[in-house]
């Protein structure tokens, strides 16, 4: 693999770390709203978490995403950029040729598909840690909770090991189907708007977008992507939160049916405001970290090899 190809993975790692630091508090609120723990609305959820768990409650489970989502983002951006280059080489004989819209869409879909392999276990551990201190709500009297009202996991490694021991590989990849349905179209609505808005905002004659253009285009792309991904994100969050104290759902389709039957169509849009609001700063940080670190690496390479 060439240095240019490796730079995309390295820059994706930086962008991923930046996005986690910026977005984790809102991610915690989003997860708790979607998992159906009795919060009336977003403000009530924020106040309840703060009252019961103080500021630390918003950062619960952050250490694992910070370590792993950086790797996850590295893979996503690396696969996306290298797929684009491969398609440009295939179509035009030049990997640096500006990709067509169809190439951006295809590269986004490939990135979304590959991301599920890494992202599902990461999200499962993060959500289990975020949810385990919530009050136990008995949804089905036939199901017996393991340890209602008390923490089940001591940390991310213990959570991963416990799920693997009790549920096997299938448990670690619980919610993978819903995540696939979320991420494949979701990354199309992530990279395509970013590419469009970045090109639209960047003044004519500029070789590359400036930081403010990257920040704005990345934020808009994130809000669009996360807002439209909310229905399948709700299903994924419920499937992965399921199993901390009890098991309600047999799979993706069963989760959709039970959620609709019990709470109606509106349940699939729970947390959409938080998702869209959270998507803006997270994606701004993601793309800004990615583009600036990529520029810095290319500059260093140019200076080293004049």
Automatic annotation (TrEMBL):
**Repeat region (Solcar), residues:** 3-86, 99-200, 209-296
Q: Where are the transmembrane segments?
A: 61-80, 100-122
Q: How does it sit in the membrane?
A: Multi-pass membrane protein
The GO terms describing molecular function are: transmembrane transporter activity
**Record key words, sorted:** Membrane, Mitochondrion, Mitochondrion inner membrane, Repeat, Transmembrane, Transmembrane helix, Transport
**What GO CC annotations are associated with the protein?**
mitochondrial inner membrane
Identify the InterPro entries for this entry: MCP, MCP_dom_sf, MCP_transmembrane, Mitochondrial_Carrier
| Subcellular localization(s) per the UniProt record | Mitochondrion inner membrane
What's one Pfam family the UniProt record gives for this protein?
Answer: Mito_carr
Instruction: Report if keyword Protein transport is assigned.
Output: no
**Family, similarity comment:** Belongs to the mitochondrial carrier (TC 2.A.29) family.
Query: What protein does this entry describe?
Result: Solute carrier family 25 member 48
